[in-house]
């Protein structure tokens, strides 16, 4: 845990008022990423409003957040039950939920969008939010593969729009990529960087380019690993062993593909290929397409390049 995070936790336990760069946070989308982002923001003293399309999905997100918080509390407070309960209660008290996107942004300092990776759905959402939110509210998208400027294009606040790209699982992964478009103002960028630090994340900055830093390097790497397999150069297992023991990577490319989801990787590659057809690094492979069409999506479907216990 960083010095900053530790201080944030300490400040809360003494219930002192904190001077946060962006205090009121709205997270839209309570799936895998959104619930993690909402949890971490509430844990670090922000007032969080989580938005989903239905009450059952909000209940599911809240239940996932509680389970994840219990794990954090167990690790943080060990067997100190009172401290643990206090931490859970204070964090959950800072978390509100709603199914109304327009109501959720009335007092928001920042909105983080973590809904489906579909430009049209994101545009519809941001158009509505742009009407409902105060002028000063910063908008951010957690998109993995779309252009931030393209998402922002439907709003009248392009200077108050940027990317905050978190990693899964959000409560565990330390990195936050902060993306500034050519129109993101210095003030917006500085506040997003400050906010990232308040969340206890290590921030890095990247321009609004496909995949930012991590996915721009990882996705073509996974694509090339699949092409190696297609050519019959080596088996998936041997390629994974090679990259773990030879390059010191914690997972091999096929283990990573199964973890991320073959459909997600193919979707990213397809999108980039359509936009940049001349770039050979973004060429989707036939093997990947075939596996996805057979429903072999990786860990989530029980089989990808490997078989998994469900
Ligand atoms: N999964 C990852 O590892 C990962 C990592 C970084 C970024 N991302 C990005 O984060 C975003 C979300 O990904 P995810 O994996 O959490 O997806 P997910 O499918 O787990 O969750 C998306 C949620 O958004 C909700 N939603 C859809 N439209 C909505 C709307 N208009 N208003 C409110 N909620 C809405 C859905 O009901 C769903 O629960 C995507 O843009 C993705 O590219 C994903």
Features:
single chain; 310 residues; alpha/beta; globular; disordered N terminus; binds nicotinamide-adenine-dinucleotide
Describe this entry's structure for a reader:
The chain has 310 residues and is an alpha/beta fold. It is built from 13 helices and eight strands. It has helices at 3-13, 32-43, 55-77, 81-93, 101-104, 119-132, 148-152, 186-198, 214-231, 236-247, 253-260, 262-275, 286-293, and strands at residues 24-28, 47-51, 95-98, 110-113, 138-141, 161-165, 175-180, 202-207. It has an eight-stranded mixed beta sheet. β7 (175-180), α8 (186-198) and β8 form a beta-alpha-beta unit. α2 (32-43) packs across α3 and α3 packs antiparallel against α4 (81-93). It is globular and about 55 Å long. The two termini are 32 Å apart. Nicotinamide-adenine-dinucleotide binds next to α2 and α6. Residues 28-34, 51-53, 57, 101, 114-117, 121, 125, 142-144, 165-166, 168 line the site of nicotinamide-adenine-dinucleotide (NAD). The record marks 165 as: Important for catalytic activity. Its main location: mitochondrion. Homodimer. Interacts with GLUD1; this interaction inhibits the activation of glutamate dehydrogenase 1 (GLUD1).
Radius of gyration, in Å, reads 20 Å
- Secondary structure category: alpha/beta
The unreliable regions are 1-17
State the total count of DSSP E strands.
Answer: 8
Biggest sheet details? 8 strands, mixed
Count of alpha/pi helices: 13
Mean pLDDT: 94
CA distance, first residue to last residue: 32 Å
Q: State the helical fraction.
A: 40-55%
Enzyme class: oxidoreductase
Subcellular location: Mitochondrion matrix
Subunit structure: Homodimer. Interacts with GLUD1; this interaction inhibits the activation of glutamate dehydrogenase 1 (GLUD1).
GO molecular function: (3S)-3-hydroxyacyl-CoA dehydrogenase (NAD+) activity; NAD+ binding
